[in-house]
Amino acid sequence: MNTLEEEAAARAGLSRRDWHRVALAWALSPWLTPAAQAQAQPLTRLPGAPTGPRWQVDPFSLGVASGQPQPGSVVLWTRLRITEADAALQAQPIAVVCEVFADAALRQPVRQWRVQTDAARAHSVHVVASGLQSGRPYWYRFVCGNASSPVGRARTSPGVNDDVDRLRIALASCQHYEQGYFAAHREMAQRELDLVLFVGDYIYESSNPQYRLRQHLGGVPTLLDEYRDRHAQYKTDADLQACHAAHTWAMTWDDHEVVNDYANDLDRHFTDPQVFLRRRAAAYQAYFEHMPLRLGPDPVQRSQMRIHDSMAWGRLADLWTLDCRQYRDHQACPDPNRGGGRVVVGCDALADPSRSLLGQAQEQWFTDGLTRSTRRWKLVAQSTQMSSTGIHTPLGRSAFTDGWDGYPQARARLLGTVAQAGLHNVVVLGGDVHMNVAAQLRVQPNDERSPVVASEIVTTSVTSRGMGEKLLAQITGSNPDIVHARSDERGYTLLEVQAGGIHAEFRTTTFPAQADATLKTQAQWAIRSGVAGVQKA
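^ thats the sequence. predicted structure below, dont judge the formating
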């Protein structure tokens, strides 16, 4: 056996004789047909790995991940990375086995699946590992020929009617590879968590040499292979790999997964929509290929991909992950020379009640689910800050058109639904703005006559730089609903959800995040069950 075969055999606890016996058994088993490519099929558990490619270089260098947990299932992911040493394998379908165990020592096999992948999906592998028990951890790995992946730990969600004591979430966003190291992920990987909730800007398409600590490979991506390369570079980060391997993720995206400030079918350069949608389709496909997601791009409309979703955590909480980019109306009052978000004053279009940040269909889906929810906590994960950040000026109040201030009627509809339905314990979770925020949410922002109806926690960026202190002081001075805001530090937010309340701890380090950075607690905030709004912990 070569080195990779020996490693795989050792992980499986096999002798050389056992290895060849298992290899023979696998050689005699039929492969999946081309029509069933990438569709996982459960297998009777065999004690080792199948025959297959003899890899010269480890194909599992991008790690493993799990995501989108359900009571009896979870999505398991990896991607085979084929180097020049194994280039002959690039053009052929490749079979991969996914093994799930009930213990960290991998002595208690549970189920096994075999999938077939190929270059059309960048040799990514998605297994919906079903038939599992609810609310418990599992350990998994992938095997391909003489190669075996790192071991990951995944968790299924509790049964929908289970009584659950707590839900531990790490909330994260905005991880510009060039602007810092992923120290936040290193700490998250070491925490005892139920879920990592990532709310956008997993990759960045852009670069800023002024803040560069390490460098993107290649230029600004616009084509499928270029987006694939960008995702693969991020996935090589050891701390990010460790966080994926340690915890199950739920996720949504923001703009930089495609291009800054895009809105639906429009980018900042007013590119012809049909041209831009081809770029968006490439970005969406690459995103799916590198994430533990159940669904991929629409097979008919390749530029579309549903990512908004909902899940229950027993009877404790409902969680929605919303898509704030794909379906939104274009930004109001655009600059004719440069599209995207900008700060405006006196923009009449903001008062248009038909405008939506989520799109009418998603907005209706979400509000229907929100009003029907009977669970203690209603957690709304979306990509940005919902509380207002406008500034009082001599010409009137400003609004940034790329955020919720650019869609004030949509925000009022959503929070109005919370008020009119008498909903309790609604908590909005966000990212994007590169600062930690704790805020009160009212139907009429900053108006004390308008009751607080919900709470907001926004996490700072993992690495991306924040706004200056002078601008932040103007924002907080004009928005009393914001009770905490710090833009000078990077990190993530630790959330502990219990029946009686939610505890939020902002874990941070200074900008730029260094490779050896350790995180501290910047501030702690609490939300009490039955009491809308955040309170100092």
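The chain has nine helices and 26 strands.
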